[in-house]
Amino acid sequence: MKAINTEVEEMLRGIIEKRQQSMKNGVIHNDDLLGLLLEANTDYSDADCKSSKGMTMEDVIGECKLFYFAGMETTAVLLTWTIVVLSMHPEWQDRAREEVLQVAMVFNEVLRLYPPVVLINRRTYKEIELGGVTYPPGVMLALNIMSIHRDPAIWGDDSDEFNPGRFAEGVTKACSDPGAFFPFSWGPRNCIGQNFALLEAKVAISMILQRFTFDLSPSYMHAPCTVLTLHPQHDVPVRLRRL
After folding, report:
1. Cα dihedral sign, 131-132-136-137
2. What percentage of the chain exceeds 70 in pLDDT?
3. C-beta separation of 85 from 222 below 8 A
4. For residue 43, how many other CB atoms are within 10 A of its CB?
5. Other CB atoms closer than 10 Å to residue 159's CB: what's the count?
6. What are the phi and psi torsion angles at 141 (to 5°)?
7. 138 φ/ψ angles, rounded to the nearest 5 degrees
8. Which pTM does this prediction carry?
9. To bridge 59 with a disulfide, which of 55, 87, 144, 231 should be the other Cys (CB 3.0-4.6 Å)?
């Protein structure tokens, strides 16, 4: 993993350095995320009268890695689990194919059962009381999304079952506590790419449903596991049939 990270960082460093040199030569690159990021950083550095020099190379590399991870990895995982559950429940595959509104319900249920990120951390910045316990500043709190999303006390006796119909009236009425559904985190620090990720996933699954029916191969083994995000431990062999 360390070797892969080093290789990715070196590759990004080369791309960024070439882009920076191109910008110094007067070439404008404001039509992609990297160009906008570097342009904003340059403007900030030029206009700043203080000692700050803006983002370092390591900061820019970190932002590029985050953009890729948030924009590609989580969407790919969401689509993978959607294919799995729709293969297991062909009646919902048919419903999603017939009515696009059903797709949103299916995605919400997939995100409930198989959230891409199963655990998020939040650090207290001041003394705060939660559930009758007082925490001082600097305490790291871990929120287990998977456990909360499957809590029978919140979601009912069928909390472990795939039932997109629970979202028929929206997220706020799907369970006893609307705050218990947070696959993209919650509040002011929720995922800024949430809407884009869902739109991208909807387009992809809609194109697949328009062209194919699919089911799982008998060799499929259902074994979710966490490797940064929630992946199937084994491959997902799917049999496609053109409509």
Report:
1. positive
2. 92
3. no
4. 11
5. 17
6. -105, 130
7. 90, 5
8. 0.79
9. 55
- Residue 40: CB atoms within 10 A of its CB come to 13
DSSP for residue 183: B
Residues with Cβ < 8 Å from 144, sequence gap 6 or more? Answer: 118, 119
Distance (Å, rounded) from C-alpha 196 to C-alpha 64? 17
How does DSSP classify residue 229? E
What is the distance between the alpha carbons of residues 232 and 225, in angstroms, rounded to a whole number? 6
Residue 50: φ, ψ to 5°: -90, -175
In the structure, what pLDDT confidence band is assigned to residue 211 with cuts at 50, 70 and 90? very high
Q: What pLDDT score was predicted for residue 112?
A: 97
Helices 101-113 and 74-88, axial angle in degrees (round to 10) = 100
Mark out the alpha helices in the chain (DSSP H runs): 2-24, 33-47, 57-68, 74-88, 90-98, 101-113, 145-149, 152-155, 194-211
Give the tens place of pLDDT for each residue, 63-108. Answer: 787 777 766 788 899 999 999 999 999 999 999 998 878 999 999 9
Q: 198 Cβ partners below 8 Å, 6+ apart?
A: 107
Nearest to 158 by CA among 180, 144, 181, 175: 175
